Amino acid sequence: MITPLMPVFARADIAFERGEGAYLYATDGTRYLDFASGIAVTMLGHCHPHLVKALTEQANKVWHTSNLYQMPNQQKLAERLVANTFADTVFFANSGAEAVECAIKTARMYQSDSGHPERYRIITFTHAFHGRTLATLAATANERYLAGFGPKVDGFDQVPHGDLEAARKAIGPATAAIMVEPVQGEGGVRVAPPGYLEGLRRLCDEHGLMLIFDEVQCGNGRTGKLYAHQLFGVTPDIMPTAKAIGGGFPIGACLATERAARGMKAGAHGSTFGGNQLGTAVANAVLDVMLAPGFLEGVARKGQHLRQQLAMVAEKYPGVIEEVRGVGVMLGIRTKKPNDAVSNALRRHKMLSVTAGENVVRLYPPMIIEEAQISEAADKLDAACKDLAG
Ligand code: PLP
User: Fold this and answer.
1) Is the shortest distance between the CB of 214 and ligand 1 below 6 Å?
2) Looking at ligand 1, which atom is closest to the CA of residue 95?
3) Which helix (H) or strand (E) covers residue 197, if one does?
4) Which mutation among 216, 241, 330 tests ligand 1's pocket best, with the greatest number of atoms within 8 A of CB?
5) How far apart are CA 280 and CA 54, in angstroms?
6) Is the dihedral of CA 217, 150, 93, 101 positive or negative?
């Protein structure tokens, strides 16, 4: 018999009832060190006082008014994102997939508005993940996720990630854009190889294509930069983001240059809840913390320290850990054991992680992690490896 909750998730048998900073507390009182962060979402930890204040203050004022009226919180958030990135304009959504959907539509509209309505196809890459709507699934092109849902939405051409020549060869008269994650998350914490994003930028410039960086997972401070592409010194034309931008409150955003978004006029796109009063109040509070002087530099420093600690454990257990990879506090360990065995072992030692492609276990601590918690994580990983090595 089907469960009341549609059984599309394989859930662990734990329920959390409270969170504080880097810790989650289960209903039986057990404390877990949270290195999953709700899959790259709660990047300021749980119940950050500044975020709780912003949410409760807004909840006591007004929750929802629709996008038919001005929303000062939304306006302010857009202005701050524009001031701190390549972008000139922002559309707010509720999730990553919706933000990516807006990016796809913006790229197609740009071509149409430029006199090339025949250019609608988007080049995407192996190991990618762009979401679970029908279009973003087609962009993801993972057969496992597509099976059973009828014909794949047309308009996406997938090529091997890391191979510039393959991307060049895939460009045709119907190509509108190239879409890539600067650090592939679900695919296994795969940082773009040196020169790769620059090469894609060049290809786009040569062929009149839009460059889309999907920063739903790697964006919003986790790499030690506000957005991951800032590590590489390459800018996109369009950038969807979500997850950590709301620190746990659902909100997504699609950032674009003026040129890229010039066709996106009134009526071209929309959302009932996108950029709502509560979400934008919290996202502004997230930015307050992230843009405070020295905060992102601190994330980079903590990430390096964590990585060193993990590398020391890896050296001790070469039969369990093959590689530590990633950047900032977006780290992954590629294991020689099944990755779910490692993640389960960590959970037995009261630490949460998330599995990813290429047999990787993602370690995504909140950016407010303290030195003592980094050591605690290394000890728990050591204990988990010891169990598995034996
Ligand atoms: N794009 C990337 C890079 C992601 O990692 C994800 C989610 O994991 C998405 C898009 C889809 O986001 P959401 O699950 O919020 O729809």
Assistant:
1) yes
2) 15
3) helix 196-207
4) 216
5) 10
6) positive
Tell me the domains of the chain and their CATH numbers: 16-34+294-389 (3.90.1150.10), 50-290 (3.40.640.10)
pLDDT in tens, the chain (390 residues): 999 999 999 999 999 999 999 999 999 999 999 999 999 999 999 999 999 999 999 999 999 999 999 999 999 999 999 999 999 999 999 999 999 999 999 999 999 999 999 999 999 999 999 999 999 999 999 999 999 999 999 999 999 999 999 999 999 999 999 999 999 999 999 999 999 999 999 999 999 999 999 999 999 999 999 999 999 999 999 999 999 999 999 999 999 999 999 999 999 999 999 999 999 999 999 999 999 999 999 999 999 999 999 999 999 999 999 999 999 999 999 999 999 999 999 999 999 999 999 999 999 999 999 999 999 999 999 999 999 997
Residue 154: how many other CB atoms lie within 10 Å = 9
Nearest CA to ligand 1 atom 7: 131
To the query of whether residue 214 is one of the catalytic residues in this protein, the response is: yes
Is 242 near ligand 1, meaning CB less than 6 Å away?
Answer: yes
Our answer on whether the CB atom of 299 is closer than 6 Å to any ligand 1 atom is no
Catalytic hit among 91, 92, 129, 232 = 129
Contact 76, 84 (CB under 8 A): no
186 lines ligand 1 (CB under 6 A): yes
Residue 129 is among the residues annotated as catalytic for this protein: yes
Q: Decide: 94 in ligand 1 pocket, CB within 6 A.
A: no
114, with CB counted inside 10 A (0-12, 13-18, 19+), is middle
